[in-house]
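Raw record, unedited: ATP-binding protein
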Amino acid sequence: MARLAATGAQEDIRLYLAKLVRRYRSSDPVLAAKLEDALKRTAAASGRGAAVLRADTGSTLRSQAIPPVDRDSRLSLVRMFDDRGGIEPPLLPADVLSQLEAVVAERRNVELLERRGLRATKSLAFVGPPGVGKTLSARWLAVQLAKPLWVLDLTAVMSSLLGRTGHNLRSVFDYAREQEAILLLDEFDAIAKRRGDDSDVGEIKRVVTVMLQEIEDWPAKSMLIAATNHQEMVDPALWRRFDAVVHFQNPTQQSIASAIRRFMGADADAFDRLVDPMAWIFSGQTLSDVERAIGQLRRRLALSAITPREALQAMLDERIPPLKKSERLHLAIAWAQSGVFSHSEINEITGVSRDTIRKHAGPANRVGRRRRK
């Protein structure tokens, strides 16, 4: 401890304190309590926050050591999410949500599985485009299992120095294993490329070897999740090590409508009749796109003396032009059937003629007739 203090290695001092707390917790609880108090004070002084994680019951779950850092940059190698106070479930297709719920059920019935000679899923691969809920799903899993989530920070882990990236990875794996946490390797393809890829130097090949060993030996008390947008770039040997692969897709119309209602927050009632027609606008887009657009819509509504329909109209003026002809027709039919806009208004917004709208959606409803009067 004196040598660490002499070199000014504050992060290493806190890490060593945390190890001492765990070492003496059962043999000398009084000393462990004093050391833990010192650890809390050093963490607070450095702005790192409390050093003890608590479970939902309020009892101490596990003394949380300071996360590992890169030796040169002193950047933390992981980002932490502790959502055990609660988080909304991800908006996912039924089959994907069912897969995740099955994993939770396994982890909650580990002893039952072990009595039958089986083991619960301990490693998952999430595959899908950006913005479809991979990270949020990992956070939701962590909440269901009452565990923190550590996310690998690639900007800190990757190093130009020979051997340093592999060393950083091992530090993260050891830390997550020690904390019995859920570790998410986001953008997995960046550090798990095919070893036959001639464009990569030998360092990446060594990193893949490290991960092969870690995934194989990953403990049952923790969970390892790898997320990627490019499955084809990942070394095939790594995929074979994962217990299950979950494929995420762009949301359905129903998922988009549910997302709009959630993202509307306090304005949900004002837009209730507009939600389903609005969902057509975001067809083929991710829920991240939807959340961003709805946030912009709500800010416009809050800062301007306009009605919900006028706020929606402004958003439509910005988003309608890129739509294909077939998409405009679907949108026009949906609005005509909902009664949100008259046929004349739909024609002005989408460019679809009133005769075409009438042909596919039937006569104008009361909203349209009342506007023509």
